[in-house]
Amino acid sequence: MTRHARNCTAGAVYTYNEKKKDAAESGYGTNAQRLGKDSVKSFDCCSLSLQPCRNPVITKDGYLFDKEAILQYIITKKNEYSRKLKEYERLRKLEEEEQSQEANRQQESKVEQFVKSGKPVNGTVELPSSSKSSTSNKVDKSSISNMANGHEKKLPSFWLPENCPNAGRAKAIKPESTIFCPVSEKPLKAKDLIDVKFTLLKDGDSSKSLIAKEARYMCPVTHDVLSNAVPCAVLRPTGDVVTMECVEKLIKKDMIHPLTNQKLKEKDIIPLQRGGTGYAFTNENLEGKEKRPMLQV
């Protein structure tokens, strides 16, 4: 008996491929697809602009940025912090004024109660106006009506902004002065940025521009072509980008810079965070999922 085709409809079993195809066409179920090269940035591109870096810098965690883009990001965050700080000081001042007014109001009410509670000269005692009103207008706590106990004068339109439970003046919350990396979400300072120096690939083809070339850079020690599939590291003292193979086999033996003979430490070797391709697994989260309504029978 010959084999059936993959999309055979005469079989009694609803195959996985048919189920996946029907789910893609019907608009139900979860679609999972591996991200291709067009969806992931290249290893020498900025993590903000996603374009090849003109003045590349790297953070201590290994994320590459264009110097102009990351400095503009830091300046924007500082301006945002100063704006939030002014708003915080304004709200804080209003809260202090309200607290002082409330304290004065309580003090005046205590003085008024003390004056009204004093005995007159003829010996007769009169009830304060507040107590009279309280005895005459008793609050019916047993009523469950939303129109009782003075609520009949209020608008029942609970959807209005002024009638919401959280309506009122915004609370003063002190803003965070620390600037965080847009990728790793760790504290970021401009002085911690390290200049990166890529070594141009000597291929002899001067007709193409640098951006048009697929292979642009190489390791200055081993002359291996750098790409997303090649793990790289940045040497902090000079900013040179070398392969991790060069680091493991040459540099870590004596911990000496192969180009300048400078003594290196473990923190001077920064692994470069890279993107990925559709064929080689280079980092995590290379799969995109789209959740849609489930078709229930």
From TrEMBL:
Residues 4-78 form the Nitric oxide synthase-interacting protein zinc-finger domain. Pfam families: Rtf2, zf-NOSIP. Residues 129-144 have a biased composition (Low complexity). The keyword Lyase does not apply. InterPro entries: NOSIP, Znf-NOSIP, Znf_RING/FYVE/PHD. Its main location: cytoplasm. Belongs to the NOSIP family. This is Nitric oxide synthase-interacting protein homolog. It comes from Stomoxys calcitrans (Stable fly). The gene is 106095191.
